[in-house]
Amino acid sequence: MANERATSKFTGRFDFKQFAKKMFDPIETEVLGPLYVGMLGECHTWMHSHQKSRVGANGFPHSFVSVPELLLNMILAYQLPQQRFVPNDIKDTKKDEPGSSDRSRQEGNKSDGEEGGSRKKRRNSQAAKRGKNVTINPRVTLSDELSVKLLEEMLKIPLAAESKLWKTAKYVLCPSNSPHQMEVFGEIIAKNTEDGLISFNALNYFMHDQVLTQHFKNPATILHALYLGPLNAQTVEVFAANRSAEFRRSCREVLRVAVRASKDPMTFQHSAPINIDKQHPDRVKYRDFIETVKQLVKDLNGEYQGSSGIHVGWACAAIKKFGQKRYVDKTWRDENYYDLLWTVLAQRPHLKKFVVDVLEKNYGDYEAAKFWRRMQPYQMHPTVIFNQNVITDDPLQPTEEFLNFSPQVQQILMVSTEKEIRDLHKLLEYKVSREEVVYVGVDAEWSAYVSPSKATILQMAFYDLVYILDLESHQISPESYHLFLSYLFDTKEVVKIGFQFGEDLHQLRAGFRNCATLYRPNNVLCVGKLIMDLVEEVSKLNHAEEFKRDHLPFLIDDPTVMAIGKEDDTKSVPNESISNDSVGDLGEPKPVKEESVKQQLMNKGLSYLCEKFLGKPLDKTEQCSVWDRRPLRNLQLRYAAMDAYCMLMLYDKCSEVFSKMGFEVKEFLDKQSPIRISLPLLSEEKL
User: pTM for the complete prediction?
Assistant: First the structure.
């Protein structure tokens, strides 16, 4: 029976929760916690005394695991909070009245029509009327002591290298991410590593964790991990980030030891860490070690060897997802979908039949299907897209619905030649020489339809001009790119105003890996944080509502903004959460800490902030367009330029409102922490 109920909607997947419930539900709650620890401790002995090493449910290959892994899956599944649907407790007295069902049906249809929006939003709205999901907490509340004991046992369990179980395990063992508890966990993980009592999957996960990795004090941990499994470059970079120069030098020396060990079997044997037992279940063989080290060094040097084409699964999903936006939601235009289909087919020509079938069967667009059936994908270039049916309106032309440029903006200029980037560099130097501070709105765009992704354009907005720098132009030398980007991000007199610009910098670093100033830029400020400070100061005023009516009229009655002033009083609010022991009698909801109100406002995005502070939202139609196509379409130029220019508009609005309250905007800008990222490990010194 448990086997039958354990199936999921994904073929070949297995749900361990049903097994866990069948096994643990009859056991008393007080006994269950210590039983977890006892079973995990005994399962290793059981493995040594039985020939059968893997168990599972017939018909579900993914369920076949070792006994320790089976217990780990069951404990984690049982300890995760569960969702339960609770219908609304409303006494419907009208349903007995004649004609009431017809009226309710009409009202329901009317409300559905009024709501509009996507089908997902309508479904959610209808579900909310029927009831709500409540969170059922696990039966066993893990104390700090019990969590520590479980961690020690779980660290020894070997898992497949690609398993994601430790992400779940970390949440189950410490859902609050308490700094004190993380400190204790870090010490235990480091000690188990020194004793050789840790699996590769666990070691790899914690080396990649930005908090817990700091507890590994020995650079030789890299060699330890290489002898246990396929360590990747990203994990090594995280492990070595924000460390002392001496520690990073030692990491490079450890990598040199690994390279020498990969040269011959004898050196491989002699270089093995003495704390790794020869019978360790994860210990790698010499041939696997060679491949791991070879790939690791290439990746650390930035020599990407994989395919740059779009992943086939993501390509198929994108074709369907954005087809929905084009034909059903009507939020995408023909030119958007055309660009997507072109770049996908140019990279994956064998998907031509899939594209035609989707157009015909899903959306009934036989003309478009006929057009793409005639196309020859093998002759198409992924970024040189030919489409005569594009909108050619002036990018600066005002619109009624969305935010527009200021009248003082003269042009949007594309920078794609050596002369143009030099002229832009000279202009920036000239402005710095003439002005005390130069404010520049910055943003970057990259295509989601290549792998790995990297920034393809960088937008720079001045008050009268907007420049779009082509970061993939063959007419600009790498030296010119490096010189310009170094000057832009290193010059303190140039204040770069962005919105959550960290990800943009990450994409820029992917394209210009050895540009040191992208890792430690000066004066890169987030306009979102400035807005948070502004809203907080406004909420402290005695006449806050009157002040907002005069200076921030679009913020009046906004529930998220109104909550910021009361955040200190509502750090813990009731959430729909019930304990497992009170399933029959729901009882009172338990208080659960909510997400920061300020963070909620930030998560609403740049368009929302523009609407609330400038009166109109941004047009986000081009957000997921093909940004590496050349030339960019006019609507892409408008979107890219506005994304950078609105930073200046928001900054000016904040500066104006701060001055009305008697503040200088500079004092709030100075509060923002500088962005500091460690350089790539091998950029400082080659192996």
Answer: 0.81
